[in-house]
Amino acid sequence: MENTLKIPFLNNKQIEKTFHNPEEDISDLHTPDHVAIIMDGNGRWAGNRGMPRVAGHKEGVSTVVKIVKIAVKCKVKVLTLYTFSTENWKRPKSEVDSILRLPKEFLSIYLPELIANNVRIEAIGDMEDLPTHTREAVQYAIDRTKVNDGLQLNIALNYGSRHEILKAMKKMFTDLNDEKLSLDDLDEQHFSKYLYTTGLKDPDLLIRTGGEKRLSNFLLWQLAYTEFWFTDVLWPDFSETEFLHALKEYGQRKRRYGGI
């Protein structure tokens, strides 16, 4: 895969200018370790402009690039993006085919830059049902970035949380029957090891664009104590400014986890 486009990462001064107050310093941000995003509004963005829905999905890729960059600069450790859900198969075949071509198109352009900036790519979801070209592109990116230890970019592809939990339960019951696991030893932490996100800290912050206020079968187990931040901004219009505002508001919240 060849890199056909170079886009420099924002420097600190450029990031600071995205705040309404230019005196704001990103070093003062209480940055969450793990940010998850439901990237909603691509189709509506295109429809508002008299364009086919596919155009919105392609424009949304540009937003992914911007947000990965700002997340790296803000020292976010994990960024999980809801890219294609198990329910998205219900959409017209032409739209589904276009969405599932985007990972290859995105990675063919930006993978060298991601590698240069120490980003590690992983995928969560049931990859077996995806087209071969999608699986191969994602696996290639995973293999090429596996030694990187910077931001972990999780691409949620063919992901559905209920399916994930059921799959985890089936594997857990198999281990119980095979006496690889004792029922007395089973707890929340142990069950989490059967999920796609094993080894990852649960998201600290969930961002959903597009004006909807629901989880849409995304990380239901993992979001139990996550802070939510919703915006009416459609994903293709979601900017570094919006992302920084979400981080800023997160930093002002008190997380008590059921305590006082």
From TrEMBL:
Q: Which cofactors must be present for this protein to function?
A: Mg(2+)
What EC number(s) are associated with this protein in UniProt? 2.5.1.-
| Residues reported to bind substrate | 41-45, 53, 57, 85-87, 89, 91, 208, 214-216
For the protein in the UniProt heading, the enzyme class is: transferase
The terms under GO molecular function for this entry are: transferase activity
Cite the entry's keywords alphabetically.
Answer: Magnesium, Metal-binding, Transferase
Which InterPro entries does this UniProt record tie to the protein? UPP_synth-like, UPP_synth-like_CS, UPP_synth-like_sf
Q: How is the cofactor bound?
A: Binds 2 magnesium ions per subunit.
Specify one Pfam family: Prenyltransf
- Residues binding Mg(2+), per UniProt: 40, 227
Q: Where is the catalytic site?
A: 40, 88 (proton acceptor)
Its family remark reads: Belongs to the UPP synthase family.
Q: What is this protein's name?
A: Isoprenyl transferase
Taxonomic classification: Bacteria, Bacillati, Bacillota, Bacilli, Bacillales
